[in-house]
Amino acid sequence: MASDSSQPPSKAPPDIQVCADRSVRVCFARDPGAGVIGSVREALAAPPIPGAFEVVCATKTVSVVFDPLAADPFEVLDEVRRRVDLAIEAPPEDRPPREVVLPVCYEPPFAPDLPSIAERTGLGQSRLIDLHAGAGYTARFLGFSPGFAYLEGLPEALQTPRLDCPRTRIEPGSVAVAGCFSGVYPQATPGGWRVIGRTPLRLFDPARQSPALITPGDTVRFRPIDGAAFARLLAERHEGGGGLG
Amino acid sequence: MSGQLRILRPGPCSLVQDLGRQGSAHLGVALSGAADTLSLRVGNRLVGNEDNAAAIEMTLAGLHASFDADSTVCLSGAVGDAILLDSHAKALRRVRLLEPTRVNAGESLRIGPFKTRARGYLCIAGGVRTPPVLGSRSTHAASGLGGLEGRPLATDDLLPIGSDAGPAARRLAPQARDRLLAMSSAHELRVTPGLHAAVLGADAMETLVSSVFRVSRAADRVGVRLEGERIGTTDPGEIDSEPALCGAIQVTPDGTPIVLMPDGPTTGGYPVVGVVIGADLPALGQLRPGDEIRFVEVDAHAAIEAIRSQRQELDTLCPPNEPDLR
Question: From the CB of residue A226, how many other CB atoms can be counted at a distance below 10 Å?
Answer without folding.
Answer: 11
